[in-house]
Specification:
single chain, 11 strands, 13 helices, globular, 369 residues, eleven-stranded mixed β-sheet, disordered N terminus, alpha/beta
């Protein structure tokens, strides 16, 4: 794979290795792409249920705008046990790792590849795993980009509904409903027929469905993250994510309420919520250019990308018809001094507001694009 560099840089061939890494909770399949930027943290990805690193992130990482990031940062794709393509069925009697255990497998991955810290990029179940990892190992995580995260455990009604769904639907249908929306699945099929068909084919033909079922069951039995927003003048030593965090969700995603709830529980000075207009449950696939632009500003806000390296991105996005809505997105910022009082303001902002996530601000930022 050859990537385009800036005019002052030379073209390079990153070193790509693929291997199974042994952890205390089983082997995980990893794809590691190294660059010459040894002083930068690695981007560590973790996929959602029913997906693997290809089906979850290939569209995003193959986009030309993403090349400006991956030439600066090593990338490590992690796949849950038995979720890689052509995986053999896990042995009979095998106990699939819990979500907490999968998060505790990640330090072994970092140690194996010699990574000192990471910027996590996760979707759905992968977002939950990376958030849990950051809570338990804050010194290993510089930042998080969490798409469709649900910080809560399943309630009794959710568990009952899942069982009913398992009786009445095939596994691919259940996974598709998880990735899109149970209530709007028919509408999504009509508007994104090709995308739904592609993922149905992927789940049916390239994934080991017995293994997928175990991963899905593990996710459905997750514990709540039990994070709490620090309150100025109150208890500031609560359990919460300590790193800069960007939450992303499509406005038609089944996870939108869960993501908004997660935002309300995190530190407002370190968290940005990005709602993507006219987008379903797969924003990194459906609208990769918007996700990449947000990701770039997020990384720049952490101090890893200079303004000069953003020039080509800015010129492309302002002239792209698919990103016209980024010219004047709405921002809804709110403070939460107590649980019952909310103050909202509406202003016109650009995607540059995302870069403020790593600065000291007194309110959480929500950007709609």
């Amino acid at each position: 794979m050859v990537l385009e560099e800036n005019d002052c840089d030379s073209v390079f061939n990153p070193q790509i290795t693929e291997e199974h890494v042994e952890t205390q909770y089983g082997n995980v399949h990893c794809i590691m792409t190294r660059t010459l930027k040894a002083n930068h943290p690695a981007i560590l990805t973790f996929h959602d249920v029913g997906l693997n690193h290809k089906s979850c992130f290939e569209t995003l990482f193959n986009h030309q705008d993403m090349h400006e990031i991956i030439r600066h940062f090593p990338v490590c794709h992690v796949e849950a046990p038995g979720q890689h393509e052509a995986a053999k069925t896990l042995p009979a009697g095998h106990t699939y790792p819990t979500m907490d255990q999968l998060s505790e497998a990640l330090p072994s991955v970092l140690k194996h590849f010699g990574l000192r810290s990471v910027i996590g990029l996760g979707v759905g179940a992968g977002a939950y795993i990376l958030a849990r990892f950051a809570l338990n190992h804050p010194d290993l995580v510089d930042g998080l980009v969490l798409i469709n995260i649900n910080p809560s455990a399943e309630g009794l009604m959710d568990t009952f509904a899942t069982k009913i769904t398992g009786w009445t639907q095939t596994l691919p249908d259940t996974i598709i409903a998880h990735l899109t929306s149970v209530s709007n699945l028919q509408d999504e099929i009509l508007t994104n027929h090709d995308l739904i068909a592609t993922y149905r084919h992927h789940i049916t033909t390239t994934m080991n469905q017995a293994n997928v079922s175990q991963f899905f069951c593990s996710y459905n039995h997750r514990n709540a993250l039990e994070v709490e927003r620090p309150i100025p003048g109150g208890n500031i030593n609560v359990r919460t994510l300590k790193c800069s965090t960007l939450l992303i969700v499509g406005d038609h995603s089944p996870a939108v309420d869960a993501v908004v709830d997660c935002n309300s529980k995190l530190n407002p000075t370190k968290t940005t919520l990005l709602k993507m207009a006219d987008c379903g449950g797969l924003p990194q696939v459906d609208q990769p250019a918007k996700v990449i632009e947000a990701f770039k500003y997020f990384i720049q806000g952490m101090g890893y990308l200079s303004s000069a390296s953003m020039t080509r991105l800015r010129s492309r996005t302002t002239s792209s018809s698919s990103l016209m809505s980024l010219d004047g997105p709405r921002s809804r910022a709110h403070t939460n001094d107590n649980d019952e009082k909310r103050v909202r303001s509406h202003t016109d902002v650009s995607m540059d507001s995302i870069s403020s996530v790593n600065q000291s601000v007194s309110k959480a930022t929500e950007v709609a694009c």
